[in-house]
Amino acid sequence: MPNPLAHKLNCYVRLSEDDRMCLADAMSPSRMVAARTDIIHVGDDPRAINVILEGWACRYRQFANGRRQIVSLLLPGDPCDPHVFLLDEMDHAIGAITPVLLGQISGPAMRDLTARSPRLDMAFHREALANAAIQREWTVSLGSRTGIERLAHLFCELHARLAAVGLTDGNTCAMPMTQNDLGDAMGQTSVHINRTLQELRGMGLITLRSRRLTIHDPAALARLAHFDTAYLHLIEADHAAAR
Hints:
Elements: H1 4-9, H2 17-26, E1 31-33, E2 38-40, E3 48-54, E4 57-62, E5 68-74, E6 93-96, E7 100-106, H3 107-116, H4 118-144, H5 147-164, E8 168-169, E9 172-174, H6 179-186, H7 190-202, E10 206-209, E11 212-215, H8 218-225
Antiparallel strand pairs: 1-7, 2-6, 3-7, 4-5, 4-6, 8-9, 9-11, 10-11
């Protein structure tokens, strides 16, 4: 099976075959995590870097009363922070949205990997910087975009990120998030999300059916969302999604 992490990192720095082999050697045997279960909990000691090989996951914080805020989404090929092993404990949880095939790279293996390959070291740093840029854009969405702009921007971003790792079919991609998930990511109720989805459908911009999202007019959706792929910092970003 092609290594999704290598595919993702190659979006930031062109990797050699040796780099790809080193990545494969550093990865521990994969394991399955059931949907709607935690991959790692708040307070856990993060001794290794979790890598999403298949499926979708999210970083989130949850209050004692059950309210949850999804703070980022993790897609195939995403490392769950390449330097997390430097921390003493997790300050947030990572949960599986769908069944997830998970790989791991230990802290010592990561140190050895980046010491041996300057390209991999650069790729992991660029990936971390891109994640910080995504986080900033989510903050902009929560603070300044309207509800419909916010959801449109999320759909544009997810399609672009999936396209970069070869997981789209034209203007169609997976969308396994429930309306509750979308609400927890967008800071809105599921009722508001339902209304916004109906509005986007009514404008002829999207179809969301059977856990698949189709963007009928990528340029119009991008204009509505004030979306530009530049913040993703991808060498092979699907710029067509923003035009």
